[in-house]
Specification:
By secondary structure, this protein is α+β, with helices and mostly antiparallel strands. The chain has 16 helices and 22 strands. Residues 424-473 form the Filamentation induced by cAMP protein Fic-like C-terminal domain.
């Protein structure tokens, strides 16, 4: 980076008094920190990488301490970078600020097919780290497996379910599917039944695949008990909230069967637990019922969860979750986004397919087209309903879709837009309340700041400590 950019970054960290997802500070005034491996790994393993800032003391309130020797520091940091697999190529910048020498090391993100980056001395399973807020955490076995599965093109929907055999599949539905596949494919029609089962990834040597069991199984959960959908209705805004008479869940249902069965049952569950408003069209006198959330948006979100969730042995004990709250609907899908896809690209990019066999079967069995139109449909349906934009979150080991049911008043929309403009530079709760002319910080938090956080229009400088007195809010560029 340029010297001017480094000075601006140092000033920002000094003002915020916190590390971030992409910034780690080290004092380094008495020597080079001896163990940078965790941060080198976590920064290398996240999109965008990160920056190590040497010469800033976190313990003393993020004041400049300077580095002991910029030349020797860069040499020793490079030695640690070379002990990573693959080696890390840091880019150094040195400046003088408040009569102290500050040094930065930009750690670039490595390509997805090379991840995880880890410390050679600890090995892959103990030396791989992920950045969460301002903390470096050891990667789980599942997170490491996810990288390897993408690199090696492992598709868990094709894995064999050893305890099952073809007698556990619905023969009529299977034959109907195969007949559909034979249409307009003269060569394919000449294959034997066993060859067809192999070609369509239905079975290998008489043992069905996970995809076949989930789509044609008579009772798939007999072999895969947690590959189901759990639906709950909460009488509040958080899990654990109780109703006035002490009830934790207003409705609670487990949905099983094939993917088609689960999709249908989940939609029925959602319909049953949504408020419905009715209006009479003035010209025709026709009654029009409008559900709390657009059904098409819910269907697409559920479909995506069923088809694109992680089906590896690491997550087969985790069901899909449908959680109704008084202000929103959340759909939790096990496993984060697959491959190179990011949340920002969801609406416009063609994703890598985690489960290609399930996706192909779904075109026939779930009466849908594999055209990658699900996310745009959710955006469009929510907009037509006059509801806030859907929120997509790629959390650690799960993907979450959130739909909000509250239509915003024009006055609130104007005030929220002004907050967004105001927070181009990080602002505290008090600063935002003062800006709005609101005396009660809790009111400003509940009615203005939190809704913008919920829709990802505002970000927190300390996301892992949401109630910190040092917390500030900003708009991500």
């Amino acid at each position: 980076m340029l010297a001017e950019e480094l000075i601006d970054l140092v000033k920002q960290i000094h003002q915020l008094k916190t590390e971030t997802q992409t910034i780690e500070v080290k004092s380094a005034h008495q020597g080079c920190p001896k163990r940078l491996y965790d941060t080198l790994s976590s920064f290398s393993n996240q999109d965008g990488g990160g920056i190590l800032l040497f010469g800033i003391s976190e313990e003393d309130g993020f004041v400049p301490t300077g580095v002991y020797d910029a030349h020797d520091l860069q040499k020793k940091v490079t030695e640690q970078c070379n002990q990573m697999i693959p080696p890390v190529r840091a880019i150094f910048t040195t400046v003088e600020w408040e009569e102290k020498v500050i040094c930065s090391a930009e750690i670039p993100s490595i390509d997805l097919i090379q991840r995880p980056c880890y410390y050679a001395g600890a090995g892959k399973y103990k030396g791989s780290y992920v950045r969460v807020g301002d903390v470096d955490l050891p990667m789980t076995d599942y997170e490491i497996y996810s990288y390897e599965a993408f690199r090696k093109h492992v598709h868990d929907d094709e894995r064999l379910i050893d305890r099952a055999d073809l007698s556990y599949l619905n023969k009529e539905e299977l034959e109907s599917y195969i007949l559909q596949m034979k249409k307009d494919r003269p060569g394919f029609s000449k294959l034997s039944e066993e060859q067809i089962y192999e070609m369509l990834s239905i079975a290998h040597n008489g043992t069905p695949t996970l995809a076949a069991l989930l789509n044609f199984g008579i009772y798939p959960q007999g072999f895969l008990p947690q590959l189901a959908i759990i639906g709950v209705v909460v009488p509040g805004t958080d899990i654990g909230d109780l109703s006035e008479d002490g009830v934790r869940f207003l409705d609670n249902k487990r949905m099983e069967g094939t993917l088609s069965d689960m999709l249908e049952e989940a939609l029925l569950f959602c319909r049953r637990n949504m408020r419905v408003s009715t209006r009479i069209e003035a010209k025709t006198g026709k009654r029009i019922d409008t559900t709390e959330y657009p059904i098409n948006a819910i269907r697409e979100a559920l479909f995506n969860a069923l088809i694109h969730r992680d089906y590896s042995s690491y997550t087969e004990g985790t069901p899909i979750q449908v959680n109704f709250f008084i202000n929103r609907l959340e759909i939790h899908s096990p496993g984060g986004l697959y491959g190179r896809m990011t949340v920002e690209e969801l609406e416009r990019a063609r994703p890598d397919l985690r489960n290609p066999v399930l996706a192909t079967m779904s075109e026939f069995l779930l009466k849908t087209e594999n055209r990658y139109s699900g996310i745009p449909t959710i955006y469009r349906e929510m907009k037509e309903y006059g509801l806030p934009k859907p929120v997509f979150e790629n959390r650690r080991n799960e993907f979450v879709v959130t739909l909000y049911n509250q239509k915003k008043k024009e006055q609130d929309l104007g005030e929220e837009q002004s907050i967004v403009e105001f927070c181009k530079e990080p602002k505290s709760r008090q600063e935002i309340a003062d800006f709005l002319g609101i005396k009660t910080i809790s009111y400003a938090m509940k009615n203005f700041i939190q809704p913008l956080l919920d829709t990802n229009e505002l970000k927190m400088t300390i996301p892992e400590k949401p109630k910190s007195r040092l917390q500030k809010y900003y708009v991500e560029n």
